[in-house]
């Protein structure tokens, strides 16, 4: 069927963080929300129908995971990413961030250290610190509007016996890099050398722009698979974040058992009934929707890049290779962190993610979400243009 991504859908008063918490977060009800990483699009029709069928059944008791649930995950990963999974590698989590919390609890002790690569998805910092560990920053390097890993700095940082884990963001949020195989090999070898487990957050793996291919970290070699835990979900791909159903892939039997023990100890190893049927329906029947979504997102990206280039040249776009989140370099506006945030909210009336949230390396940057109807995106850009021109 043909999906209409130009449709503008009213999301107010539907318990949306993105829409209904504008005043709480930004102090502005009238700002256009372009911040939280969910889409302004309805999920695929087969997903909606599967949830309706489950709702109409009328009994919402404890759920078990059928073989078809696991097979849907296995088939999707092989079809989209050429990764042949085994059922006994697949564990559950009510979200990727909760999974990171479980993993840190399971594989570290208080005072241990976890490496991240900022500017990076800001919940990483909180989940590390909240579980009694210390953040070790291995900042990405920006060169010619593209970010790269800093191997020399990483080698120095991991030469510390208290460093236990490295959280890899792949594709990277917010800078949009889709890491190449050669980059992942270098990273993986460094971590193997220093006995550091790679926790690979691959939740954005299905959202790729033309010419780019996601490589699951664990597919590179058996050694990397044995030394890694991969976190994924249909939530970003099919706009299902509120159903809190994620898959944690752990080929290492010892690591799998340790993770499962933590999950069991917290009594969190059961699916939400709607999340379960939504995942299976999305992976089985949602591909047609995704194949229509990706060109639309690519057109949105081209529209945004042209708009900034021609009409707001002081703001530079870091062109993403994946995700629907765009990293904007606003440093030429000459505003400090607080003034830049106030400028976007009070002058432009657009709610963006403040770059500083992603680490000090994000100062002077903002993150904008383009998973929205073109008219919505255009309105946001017009507001920014008008504000910049009034400076």
UniProtKB/TrEMBL annotation:
UniProt organism field: Candidatus Sediminicultor quintus
Classification via NCBIfam families: C_S_lyase_PatB
Gene3D superfamilies in alphabetical order: Aspartate Aminotransferase, domain 1 (3.90.1150.10), Type I PLP-dependent aspartate aminotransferase-like (Major domain) (3.40.640.10)
EC number(s) on file: 4.4.1.13
Entry similarity comment: Belongs to the class-II pyridoxal-phosphate-dependent aminotransferase family. MalY/PatB cystathionine beta-lyase subfamily.
Pfam families attached to this UniProt entry: Aminotran_1_2
Record InterPro entries: Aminotransferase_I/II_large (IPR004839), C-S_lyase_PatB-like (IPR027619), Class-II_PLP-Dep_Aminotrans (IPR051798), PyrdxlP-dep_Trfase (IPR015424), PyrdxlP-dep_Trfase_major (IPR015421), PyrdxlP-dep_Trfase_small (IPR015422)
A molecular-function term among this protein's GO annotations: pyridoxal phosphate binding
Keywords for the protein's UniProt record, in alphabetical order: Lyase, Pyridoxal phosphate
Name of the featured protein: cysteine-S-conjugate beta-lyase
Cofactor(s), names only, from the UniProt record: pyridoxal 5'-phosphate
Enzyme class, spelled out: lyase
Residue stretches making up the Aminotransferase class I/classII large domain: 43-384
Entry keyword annotation includes Chloroplast: no
SUPFAM superfamilies tied to this protein: PLP-dependent transferases
CDD domains listed in its UniProt record: AAT_like
